[in-house]
UniProtKB/TrEMBL annotation:
It comes from Caenorhabditis auriculariae. One of its GO terms (molecular function) is ubiquitin-protein transferase activity. GO terms for biological process: protein ubiquitination. Signal peptide: none annotated. This is RING-type domain-containing protein. Residues 8-46 form the RING-type domain. SMART domains: RING (SM00184), Ubox (SM00504). InterPro entries: Ubox_domain, Znf_C3HC4_RING-type, Znf_RING, Znf_RING/FYVE/PHD, Znf_RING_CS.
Length: 159
Protein backbone atom coordinates (compact mmCIF):
# COMPACT_ATOMS: atom_id res chain seq x y z
CA UNK A 1 0.00 0.00 0.00
CA UNK A 2 1.10 3.53 -0.72
CA UNK A 3 0.59 6.79 1.16
CA UNK A 4 -1.94 7.96 -1.46
CA UNK A 5 -4.23 5.11 -0.38
CA UNK A 6 -4.52 6.74 3.06
CA UNK A 7 -4.79 10.39 2.00
CA UNK A 8 -7.77 12.71 2.10
CA UNK A 9 -8.38 14.33 -1.27
CA UNK A 10 -9.23 17.65 0.43
CA UNK A 11 -6.23 18.21 2.73
CA UNK A 12 -3.88 15.81 0.87
CA UNK A 13 -2.69 14.43 4.21
CA UNK A 14 -3.38 11.07 5.88
CA UNK A 15 -6.97 10.48 7.00
CA UNK A 16 -7.75 11.78 10.48
CA UNK A 17 -11.09 10.51 11.84
CA UNK A 18 -12.09 9.31 8.34
CA UNK A 19 -15.76 9.34 7.37
CA UNK A 20 -17.46 7.85 4.34
CA UNK A 21 -20.06 9.83 2.42
CA UNK A 22 -23.31 8.51 0.95
CA UNK A 23 -21.60 8.32 -2.44
CA UNK A 24 -18.81 6.11 -1.05
CA UNK A 25 -15.88 8.55 -0.86
CA UNK A 26 -13.76 8.86 2.26
CA UNK A 27 -12.46 12.13 3.75
CA UNK A 28 -11.17 13.43 7.07
CA UNK A 29 -14.14 14.29 9.26
CA UNK A 30 -12.89 17.85 9.77
CA UNK A 31 -12.13 18.37 6.07
CA UNK A 32 -15.57 17.32 4.85
CA UNK A 33 -17.30 19.35 7.57
CA UNK A 34 -15.37 22.43 6.42
CA UNK A 35 -16.18 21.64 2.78
CA UNK A 36 -19.91 21.31 3.48
CA UNK A 37 -20.06 24.83 4.95
CA UNK A 38 -19.77 26.13 1.40
CA UNK A 39 -20.82 23.15 -0.71
CA UNK A 40 -23.26 20.32 -0.14
CA UNK A 41 -21.80 18.13 -2.86
CA UNK A 42 -19.00 15.59 -2.75
CA UNK A 43 -15.71 17.16 -3.89
CA UNK A 44 -14.92 14.01 -5.89
CA UNK A 45 -18.13 13.18 -7.77
CA UNK A 46 -20.41 16.19 -7.04
CA UNK A 47 -23.24 14.02 -5.67
CA UNK A 48 -25.20 15.58 -2.82
CA UNK A 49 -23.85 14.64 0.61
CA UNK A 50 -26.76 13.74 2.87
CA UNK A 51 -24.75 12.16 5.67
CA UNK A 52 -21.35 10.83 6.68
CA UNK A 53 -20.54 7.72 8.66
CA UNK A 54 -17.31 7.10 10.61
CA UNK A 55 -15.04 4.82 8.59
CA UNK A 56 -13.37 2.87 11.41
CA UNK A 57 -11.90 0.29 9.05
CA UNK A 58 -10.04 3.00 7.12
CA UNK A 59 -8.91 4.59 10.38
CA UNK A 60 -7.52 1.26 11.55
CA UNK A 61 -5.72 0.68 8.23
CA UNK A 62 -4.33 4.23 8.22
CA UNK A 63 -3.05 3.93 11.77
CA UNK A 64 -1.42 0.58 11.01
CA UNK A 65 0.22 2.01 7.88
CA UNK A 66 1.51 5.02 9.85
CA UNK A 67 2.93 2.77 12.57
CA UNK A 68 4.59 0.54 9.96
CA UNK A 69 6.22 3.66 8.50
CA UNK A 70 7.35 5.13 11.84
CA UNK A 71 4.72 7.88 11.98
CA UNK A 72 2.26 6.39 14.49
CA UNK A 73 2.84 9.06 17.14
CA UNK A 74 1.90 11.89 14.78
CA UNK A 75 -1.61 10.49 14.28
CA UNK A 76 -2.80 11.19 17.82
CA UNK A 77 -1.36 14.72 17.72
CA UNK A 78 -3.10 15.40 14.40
CA UNK A 79 -6.36 13.95 15.73
CA UNK A 80 -6.20 16.19 18.81
CA UNK A 81 -5.46 19.21 16.64
CA UNK A 82 -8.45 18.48 14.38
CA UNK A 83 -10.74 18.06 17.38
CA UNK A 84 -9.64 21.45 18.75
CA UNK A 85 -10.23 23.07 15.34
CA UNK A 86 -13.69 21.48 15.17
CA UNK A 87 -14.52 22.70 18.68
CA UNK A 88 -13.55 26.27 17.76
CA UNK A 89 -15.52 26.05 14.51
CA UNK A 90 -18.64 24.84 16.36
CA UNK A 91 -18.29 27.52 19.04
CA UNK A 92 -17.73 30.21 16.40
CA UNK A 93 -20.88 29.16 14.56
CA UNK A 94 -22.80 29.41 17.83
CA UNK A 95 -21.46 32.93 18.41
CA UNK A 96 -22.42 34.06 14.92
CA UNK A 97 -25.91 32.60 14.94
CA UNK A 98 -26.60 33.87 18.46
CA UNK A 99 -25.52 37.39 17.61
CA UNK A 100 -27.04 37.62 14.15
CA UNK A 101 -30.23 35.60 14.58
CA UNK A 102 -31.39 36.84 18.01
CA UNK A 103 -32.25 40.27 16.70
CA UNK A 104 -34.12 40.59 13.43
CA UNK A 105 -32.15 42.70 10.96
CA UNK A 106 -29.19 42.88 13.37
CA UNK A 107 -26.23 44.57 11.78
CA UNK A 108 -23.00 44.71 13.67
CA UNK A 109 -19.27 44.89 13.44
CA UNK A 110 -17.07 41.95 14.33
CA UNK A 111 -16.33 43.64 17.67
CA UNK A 112 -20.06 44.00 18.42
CA UNK A 113 -20.73 40.37 17.54
CA UNK A 114 -17.87 39.22 19.76
CA UNK A 115 -18.84 41.47 22.69
CA UNK A 116 -22.52 40.43 22.44
CA UNK A 117 -21.36 36.84 22.90
CA UNK A 118 -18.63 37.64 25.47
CA UNK A 119 -15.83 36.16 23.34
CA UNK A 120 -12.41 36.82 24.83
CA UNK A 121 -10.39 33.94 23.40
CA UNK A 122 -8.15 35.01 20.48
CA UNK A 123 -8.44 31.68 18.64
CA UNK A 124 -12.22 31.84 18.85
CA UNK A 125 -12.16 35.46 17.63
CA UNK A 126 -10.16 34.43 14.56
CA UNK A 127 -12.51 31.52 13.86
CA UNK A 128 -15.60 33.76 14.14
CA UNK A 129 -14.05 36.22 11.70
CA UNK A 130 -13.07 33.42 9.29
CA UNK A 131 -16.58 31.95 9.34
CA UNK A 132 -18.20 35.34 8.83
CA UNK A 133 -16.18 35.77 5.63
CA UNK A 134 -17.09 32.22 4.54
CA UNK A 135 -20.77 32.94 5.17
CA UNK A 136 -20.44 36.15 3.17
CA UNK A 137 -19.09 34.16 0.22
CA UNK A 138 -22.12 31.84 0.16
CA UNK A 139 -24.68 34.59 0.70
CA UNK A 140 -25.77 33.83 4.27
CA UNK A 141 -24.21 37.00 5.63
CA UNK A 142 -23.91 40.35 3.91
CA UNK A 143 -21.22 42.88 4.68
CA UNK A 144 -20.60 46.52 3.93
CA UNK A 145 -18.17 49.22 4.94
CA UNK A 146 -19.54 51.95 7.18
CA UNK A 147 -17.01 54.67 7.94
CA UNK A 148 -14.13 52.25 7.40
CA UNK A 149 -15.64 49.51 9.60
CA UNK A 150 -16.93 46.24 8.14
CA UNK A 151 -20.48 45.48 9.33
CA UNK A 152 -22.20 42.10 8.96
CA UNK A 153 -25.92 41.43 8.47
CA UNK A 154 -27.79 38.14 8.31
CA UNK A 155 -29.51 37.94 4.94
CA UNK A 156 -33.31 37.86 4.72
CA UNK A 157 -33.92 34.17 4.02
CA UNK A 158 -31.93 33.13 7.10
CA UNK A 159 -33.51 35.54 9.62
Amino acid sequence: MHEEDFCCSICLDVFIDPVITTCGHTFCSFCISQHTILHHNCPMCRQKITMTIPNRQMESCTLRWLEDNGRGTTYSAMKTSNRKKRLYMDRAQMVIWTALADMKNFTGSLAEILSKSSVENDLLRKEVERLLWLYKDVGIVDHRNVNGEVRFTLKGAFQ
